[in-house]
Amino acid sequence: MANITVTDPSSLGDALRKTRKTLKISQEDLSLQTGISRTTIRAIEQGKQTAHVGLVLQLCRDLGLTVVITAPGTVDRP
Fold first, then answer.
1. What is the pLDDT of residues 25-51, one digit of tens each?
2. What residues contact 58, with CB distance under 8 A and at least 6 apart?
3. Which domains does the chain have, with CATH numbers?
4. The pTM is what?
């Protein structure tokens, strides 16, 4: 999978949803795998502004995603 640029909660949610669907995992199955409620997963995928960072990182980890933070000035933004 290619690198995904995340700039806000909405684009993060899109990235999580696209990855989950690519892996052919339902929200229900991801909920059972992670212990995070389906309602919370849905809210995060919809770009919930107040999602807990720990839950978001857990979803990333369980979907096989790695979060990379780029310092200002080290890469051009699209």
1. 999 999 999 999 999 999 999 999 999
2. 34, 36
3. 1-78 (1.10.260.40)
4. 0.86
